[in-house]
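Reopening: structure tokens for the zinc ion complex, inputs below.
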Amino acid sequence: MKLLTILAVLCLGVWLWRAQRRPSVKDQTPQPGRTQSEQAPHEMVACRSCAVHIPAAEAHVGKLGSYCCTDHLKRSES
Ligand SMILES: [Zn+2]
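Re-run output (same inputs, fresh job):
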């Protein structure tokens, strides 16, 4: 009977420990969300001059739009 009580307490302890760990797993789920937000800057834009698609973060943004390089930006906007 003593062994059964110890086992029951152990099971309860493990169950409680696992129940407490689950919210922390939920807290970690925003991390993939963070990686998605990190992936967001990889949005592609087309160069207004040659229509080449480049990541928005690497695009040269002018008054009229985005360009793949400063050369195309200067050529299209001057
Ligand atoms: Zn271009």
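The longest strand covers residues 44-46. The mean pLDDT is 82. Marking as resolved unless the reporter disagrees.
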